[in-house]
């Protein structure tokens, strides 16, 4: 397994908010409500999310919206 497949890109809250065009308070509300993937805590870096988890979350939202 190559390193690219073994490890995914990590995103911080600023990366995610910029990508989704949302405010930090929106992201925290989604987390509180259980509507957003859980982060991992990286010592010295704070909370981070795997980009693959965020991409899957977006894909799942797209799938749900296409059912309606």
Structure notes:
The chain has a single domain, classed as Arc Repressor Mutant, subunit A (Orthogonal Bundle). With 68 residues, it is an alpha+beta fold. Strand 2 (40-42) and strand 3 form a beta hairpin. 1% of the residues are buried. It has helices spanning 3-6, 13-20, 24-32, 51-66, and strands spanning 10-11, 40-42, 46-50. A 3-stranded antiparallel sheet has the order 1-3-2.
Outline the secondary-structure elements.
Blueprint: H1 3-6, E1 10-11, H2 13-20, H3 24-32, E2 40-42, E3 46-50, H4 51-66
Antiparallel strand pairs: 1-3, 2-3
CATH topology: Arc Repressor Mutant, subunit A
Reading off the top of the CATH hierarchy, the class is best stated as: Mainly Alpha
Sequence stretches where pLDDT stays below 50 over 5 or more residues: none
| Largest sheet: number of strands, sense, barrel closure | 3 strands, antiparallel
**Number of individual domains:** 1
CATH architecture: Orthogonal Bundle
Structural class: alpha+beta
- Please list the strands of the largest sheet in the order they lie side by side: 1-3-2
Radius of gyration over all CA atoms, rounded: 13 Å
Q: Classify the beta-strand content into a percent band.
A: 5-15%
Please give the share of residues in helix.
40-55%
How far apart the termini lie comes to 39 Å
- What's the pLDDT, averaged over the residues? 89
Instruction: List the helices and strands in order.
Output: HEHHEEH
Count of helices?
4
Q: Please report the total strand number as a whole number.
A: 3
Write down the overall geometry.
globular
């Amino acid at each position: 397994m190559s390193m690219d497949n073994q490890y995914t890109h990590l995103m911080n809250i600023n990366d995610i908010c910029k990508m989704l065009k949302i405010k930090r308070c929106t992201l925290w509300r989604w987390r509180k409500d259980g509507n957003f993937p859980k982060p991992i805590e990286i010592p010295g870096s704070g909370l981070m999310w795997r980009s693959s988890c965020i991409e899957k979350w977006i894909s799942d939202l797209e799938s749900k919206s296409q059912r309606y």
